[in-house]
Each structure stands twice: as structure tokens, then as C-alpha cells.
Amino acid sequence: MKTNSYKRLWHGWLKRYRGMLMLGFLGMIGGALASAGYAKAMQWIIDGFQTADADVIWWGPLLMIFLASSKGFSTWLFQVSSNEALVRAETDLQKAMHKKMVFADLAQVQSESGTALSTRFTADILLVRQSVKQIFTGVSSVLILLATVTVMLSIDWVITVTLVAVFSLAVWPVNRVGGRLHIVSRNTQDDLALMSGEISEALGGIRMARSYQLEPYLIRSAGKIFDRLLRLKTRLIRLEATLSPIMETLSGVAIAALLAVVAWRLSIGTTTLANFMALMTGFGVISQPARNMGKTFAMAKQGEAALDRIFEILDMESRISDPENPIPLSQGKGAISFQGVGFAYPDGKKALHDLSLEVPAGASIAFVGRSGAGKSTIFNLLPRLYDVSEGRIEIDGTDIRAVTQGDLRRQIALVSQDSMLLSGTIGQNIGFGRANASQAEIESAAKSAAAHGFISALPDGYDTVVSAGSSPLSGGEKQRISIARAMLRDAPILLLDEPTSALDAESEAQIRTALAQLSSGRTTLVIAHRLATIRDADIIVVLDQGRIAQKGTHDELIKAGGIYAELFHLQFGG
């Protein structure tokens, strides 16, 4: 068995609960001693009957009750202590994984679907807990085996050694099956994550799918994954089941060997009936723990595969980090300078090429271009969600890589097309714009964003609970909350990423009024496909395949012809 994953799990997560685990271990020892005591007790009781000891009538049953009670209490102590330590460690792992994902590079987070990632927090974590729980059960089984075999050795070492030799034959086949289990289990967990993403995607786009009658395609696509999972699960079942006949066969061989050796030793007078009954009792005690060893090995291999997936997240190394000696960046004017900026995604695709642009403080700059031209990449580079591959970006003359991410992002407010709300109240969602903002400041920002009226009309007002998945608000209302959040931030740089693209005409008119107030006096960068919304921009930058193709005012670009004029004429019919 590969031990590194479990060794890391112990040192990083379980060790902090060693007090609980020690109590559980004491329970294991108590249970093992009580279990082993049955064999010795049976020897004493049979000897008592054979020697006509009248007292055996009362001390025999009392001894059995004592052993049963001791084993019951020890098992309770083991299960409660070890399971509590496990669920606490499980929670710590989930918190650490979530924290890692929150601070991970955007490219790492987006490399896998959110639904697939969530399976590592649920299915993988559950499998790890189940496997470690089974390992604890395996340790308990080992202690029972050791204690009982020790007692059996004291009764008749020849017969006991014979039994141990028979069960040792299981080591090679069990180890071979375990290696295959690890591979199949890892593939199964990967496909479970893929299945979750497929189902989430299908349900999320069900409106479009039904509109285009894509139900058969969705069924076929998901069916392929379900069938592949079925094959993997079937292999897992068969591999796990392989261990059962191995252990059962060895148990039968052990009983046959026990009977043969006992018959021989009884015939030559080197053992007694009491010893035989005691050994049979001991064999009965160790038979189930011996079978547990195969199950423990199988579960440990599956848990190891799940741990590998969990540690992949915990081992993510963020390439975007704060400098060792950061330069303080207080709130400035918001002048931005792009100097020979180039960027390539992790897969090698180049998104920007030698982009140079000076954005004066307080200016309004609009970026336009066809899909994939590099507009969103610029918006991701400015707050360092990605880092430039070439060149540099400066704010008020300071390289953004020379300051902390916190200082940098406090200079920037964002309003995007998806109007994202987090789980919490409306007041909290606005308050995310600036830490420790007062209720009066939150309401003032809402009034500036034309949001105070509809918020106050809600039964719970600013205490109305919303979430990313559901809320009583329309798209335009959620967008005005996003604008209020940006107003509360009061940052010198404002990023507007298609903020009105998903709104109706009435909502768009209200939002544009709020955006005009928000943009006043700020350096504003806008991505817009609706060219009518950016005609008044100070500078319009036309991007084409990651390069600046044109730059100027609306009138200048219309006169010059080219991409901008082409896009404008397409939208407004010439």
C-alpha cells in the first residue's frame, strides 16, 4: 500500500486530534483483550466441567458477561472517539480546499468545471472518511488477531502456528488485487466528477436544449458517461468481491488444518478437549477480523485514489503572489499604462501581442472588437487575475506586480454583465464593496444607483436574503445592486464589462443613468458590443486578434473606415 498519502493525512490533519484518537486506540485495545479473553475463558470453563468444579456454574456466566460488557464499552469508545476525530479532520480538509480554490490562480480554477470540482469536496472527501474509518477497523482487527493469537499460542502453539501459516497465504493475492483497485477507483472518481459536470451543464441549459430539441443529444452524451461509470463500478465490485472467496477459502483450509492437527495431537495425548474448544473459540473470534483485512486493504486503495485528487487541489501553487517587499499603493488618480503587454494562456494560446496604451486619469476608454480579440483578457490582467507574459502594466507610474494584490484591487471596481450576488442579504452584497461600511453608506450608495426604491419596497428591505442561484430580483435590479457595490467601493478605476448587455430597454436606460454617475471623475474602461453605448468615450480602442488595430474617437474611427466602421455599419444598417 502506498503510504505517503495517508502519512500526509496523518501529519497534516489527523494528528491534531490525537487525543480523541488515543481514546479510540484504548477502546481498540480493550476490545482486543476482551475478544481474546473468550478463548481463555472457554478453556477455563471446559476444564472446570471436566474437573467437576461446582463453582464454574456461577463464575463461568459472570466471566462471559464481564467480557461481553467490556467489549461493548470498548467498541463504543473506539467508534465515538475515532469517528469524531475523522469528521473534524474532514471539515478541516474541506475548509483548506475551499481556501485554496478561493486564492488559486483564475486559470487553475477555470481548468475544471465548478461542478466537477465540487465532487472533490463531497464524493472524494466521503470516500476518504470511509477508507480511514475502515483502516481504523483494520487496526482494531489486527489488535484482536494479535491478542487472540497470543492467547491461542499459550494454549497450543503448534496448532496456532499452523493457522497463522494458512492465513499468511493471502498476502500475495490480496496485494495484487489492491493495486488494480487503486487504478480503477481513481478512474471512477474522475468519471464521477465528469458526470456531475455533464448533468449540471445539461440542466443549466435545459431551456436552450428543449428549444432546439437537443434532448436526444443530451441523453446520448450523458449515457456514454453513465455506461463508462457502470463498467468501472462493475470492475470495482468484482475486484472487491475477489477478496471474499480468497479469505473464505483460507478460512475453510484453516478449519481443515485445525481439525487434522487437533485429531493428531489428541491421538498422541499432547492436547486436551478443553484446548480444542478454546482454540475453536479463538478461531471463531479471529475469523471475522481476518476477513476484515481484505476489505480494509480494498477500501484503503480506494481512499488513496480519492486522497490523490484532494491533494491535487491542496498542492496548487499560485503563480500570482505578492512581492517580498511591496510598494505601498494608496488611492491615486487612476492613470493606467500598458507597455508592450503580451499574454498567453496556460495551454499556450496567445491572447495579446505587444499591446501598448496610455490611459489618462479620469478618461473613458472603450474596448471593442470581435469575439476573442482580447478584450476580457485586458480586464483580467488589470486586477492581476492573470499576470502578463510580457511587458508591464502600471497604475499611476507603479508596476502592478510591485504592490500587494489587496492594494491593487482596492483601486478597482467592477460591474460585469452577470451581476453576481453572493449568498447573504442585499445589504451585505452592497457592503462587499468596502469593508466596515456603515448602513448609512450602504443606503447612500443604493440611492446613487437608483436601487433604494425597490429595495425598500421589499418586505425585509436591505435584510432580504439573496443568493447566486435564486433571488426575488430582476436582472436590472441585480445590476443596480452591483453598481451600488461599485459606488460604495469609491475606487479611482472602474471596469464595466458589458453591464447592460442582458437588460431590456427600460432597465438599460435606468442602468445607464446610474453608470454615468458612477463613472464621473473615474478612469473608466468599458467592454461593449453595443457600439451606441460607447459613442461618447474619450478613446475607443479596436482590438483584433490580440493587437490594437485602431484607436481614436467615434467620429475619427468612422472616417478612417476599417474594423470599427464595419462593426458600426453592421449594427446600424449602414
Question: Which SSEs are present, and which pair or pack?
Answer:
Blueprint (H helix, E strand, L loop, with lengths): L3 H11 L3 H33 L5 H48 L2 H4 L4 H8 L1 H33 L1 H11 L3 H34 L1 H6 L3 H53 L5 H42 L21 E9 L5 E10 L4 E6 L5 H7 L8 E6 L2 E2 L5 H5 L2 E5 L7 E2 H6 L7 H10 L3 H6 L7 E2 L8 H15 L3 E5 L7 H15 L3 E5 L11 E6 L2 E6 L1 H7 L2 H10 L2
Parallel strand pairs: 3-10, 3-11, 6-9, 9-10
Antiparallel strand pairs: 1-2, 1-4, 4-5, 7-8, 11-12
Helix pairs in contact: 2-3, 2-6, 2-11, 3-6, 5-6, 5-8, 6-7, 6-11, 7-10, 8-10, 8-11, 10-11, 15-17, 17-18
CATH topology heading of the largest domain:
ABC transporter transmembrane region fold
Q: In percent, how much strand structure appears in the residues?
A: 5-15%
Tell how many strands the DSSP assignment holds. Answer: 12
CATH top level assignment of the largest domain: Mainly Alpha
Please name the fourth-level CATH homologous superfamily of the largest domain: ABC transporter type 1, transmembrane domain
User: What's the shape?
Assistant: elongated
Distance between the ends: 72 Å
Uncertain spans, ≥5 residues at pLDDT below 50?
none
Query: How much is the radius of gyration in Å?
Result: 35 Å
Structurally, the number of domains stands at 2
